[in-house]
Write a sequence for this structure.
């Protein structure tokens, strides 16, 4: 039975509803993820002062430097902890409410978090900031898996890579928006940081009211809900044509082929030897994405530039400049992925980031004796961000969808998403202490990780451009079969080689 999904067989053009659904789902979800990554960077001094003043008012004495660093690190990294929690119920939510419905309902979390963070200063409660950050993390943990799943299922094969990287552009736009709004002329001054944190409710509000106008994934409607009418209308909307009977029939064939296959659990996924290399690949690229050092750059940009010797008044504007380059790099990756493929972008991105991490170490060590080395440090930070946005920023989420069939995909997103967020939390929490203990050499850890991930992708992960999900599964199956036969093949080669050598020796001696 043919198990190829409808968008695996069919190519199509970019219709207005398809592009609008892509932009809106990314604007209200992926953009918030990027915004919340960078929003705590510029008001760090003001938030720490608020924590210290509140603590002094409550207990009669201020916080020690170590305790204050710990509290602020928790404020930064608790966002990732919330993301880890949010990644767990993704499979259940998308099955019950659909992809579109899950995105719409998740905006309620943003409204709650915005209220908590916006009122935290007026009620003198640092706990509300931390809880609000945690809730926004839960929202991003859900959406960071659901958005690529939704876009991957509504996109034709020839547009899957392009639309799959649109969320990464919005992540860059979110980071850039936080950097611009964090300028002293806008919301970067002390009285405005609660408003700065709670601006996230604006994109969430727009998505909450506008995403209702777009249908859910046709594959979800037909295969999981057996809603032929809804799937037909969704296909007509996204594909821009009335006759979709052939596509419906293909989806019906997939539905029949999956009738005896249940959605596998996370435990089943981890113990299923038939998808072992896919699971390992998802683990490597998702952990590598966060352990590459990009989160340290986003969370602590101002601190990094300060250590690099950039004058304080110039730091906010330097940060905005890096954000603009970040957006441009994301656009380049989005418009070249279907031409170059997934592998070249992700390998080049990780290698370039690794090189920049090694060079930034050298520049920080030498900047005390060579004054212009601080500009090299800034260039390396820009290089790390640009390298990340051109490939590693969005490709791991896209490849998580492409490496698995329908029955395994929700659990794969749970595994990849949970490890992604756990790594994000680790970097956000540990980096300040790592920087204090290792100094400039802390970036060598990120350098090693980037190069190892690039090597793994080069050796193990195949190119998935213009391939159906079943074709990708067959590639991994053939690789697994080859590896299992490798010892016997080596034995046969050795036997033939030495057998032939022995025969030739006998012939020579007899002559």
């Amino acid at each position: 039975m043919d198990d190829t999904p409808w968008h695996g067989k069919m190519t199509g053009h970019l219709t207005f509803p398809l592009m609008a659904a892509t932009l809106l789902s990314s604007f209200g979800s992926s953009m918030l993820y990027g915004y919340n990554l960078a929003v705590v960077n510029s008001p760090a001094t003001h938030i720490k002062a608020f924590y210290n003043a509140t603590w002094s008012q409550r207990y009669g004495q201020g916080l020690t430097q170590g305790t204050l660093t710990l509290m602020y690190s928790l404020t930064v990294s608790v966002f990732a902890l919330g993301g880890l929690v949010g990644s767990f119920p993704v499979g259940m939510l998308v099955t019950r409410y659909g992809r579109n419905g899950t995105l719409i309902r998740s905006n309620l979390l943003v409204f709650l978090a915005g209220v908590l963070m916006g009122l935290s200063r007026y009620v003198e409660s640092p706990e509300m900031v931390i809880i609000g950050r945690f809730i926004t993390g839960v929202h991003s943990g859900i959406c960071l898996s659901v958005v690529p799943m939704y876009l991957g299922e509504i996109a034709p094969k020839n547009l899957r890579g392009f639309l799959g990287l649109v969320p990464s552009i919005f992540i860059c736009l979110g980071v850039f928006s936080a950097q611009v709004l964090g300028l002293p002329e806008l919301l970067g001054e002390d009285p405005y940081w609660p408003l700065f944190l709670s601006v996230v409710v604006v994109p969430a509000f727009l998505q909450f009211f506008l995403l209702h106008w777009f249908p859910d994934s046709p594959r979800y409607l037909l295969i999981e809900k057996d809603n032929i009418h809804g799937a037909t209308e969704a296909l007509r909307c996204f594909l821009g044509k009335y006759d979709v009977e052939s596509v419906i029939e293909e989806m019906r064939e997939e539905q029949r082929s999956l009738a005896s296959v249940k959605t596998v659990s996370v435990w089943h996924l981890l113990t299923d030897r038939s998808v072992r290399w896919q699971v390992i690949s998802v683990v490597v690229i998702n952990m590598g994405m966060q352990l590459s050092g990009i989160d340290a750059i986003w969370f602590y940009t101002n601190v990094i530039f300060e250590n690099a010797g950039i004058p304080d008044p110039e730091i906010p504007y330097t940060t905005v400049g890096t954000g603009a380059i970040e957006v441009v790099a994301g656009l380049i990756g989005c418009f070249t992925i279907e031409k170059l493929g997934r592998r070249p972008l992700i390998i080049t991105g990780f290698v370039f980031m690794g090189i920049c991490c090694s060079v930034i170490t050298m520049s920080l060590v030498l900047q005390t004796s060579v004054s212009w080395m601080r500009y090299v440090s800034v260039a390396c930070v820009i290089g790390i961000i640009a390298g990340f946005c051109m490939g590693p920023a969005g490709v791991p989420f896209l490849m998580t969808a492409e490496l698995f069939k329908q029955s395994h995909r929700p659990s794969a997103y749970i595994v990849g998403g949970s490890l992604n967020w756990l790594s994000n939390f680790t970097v956000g929490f540990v980096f300040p202490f790592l920087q204090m203990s290792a100094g400039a050499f802390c970036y060598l850890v990120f350098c090693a990780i980037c190069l190892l991930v690039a090597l793994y992708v080069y050796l193990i992960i195949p190119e998935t451009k213009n391939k159906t999900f079943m074709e990708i599964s067959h590639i991994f199956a053939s690789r697994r079969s080859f590896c299992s036969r490798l010892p016997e093949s080596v034995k046969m080669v050795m036997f033939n080689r030495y057998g032939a050598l022995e025969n030739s020796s006998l012939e020579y001696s007899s002559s």
About this structure: The chain has a mean pLDDT of 80. The longest helix spans residues 469-510. The CA atoms of residues 353 and 384 lie 5 Å apart. The two ends are 61 Å apart (CA to CA).
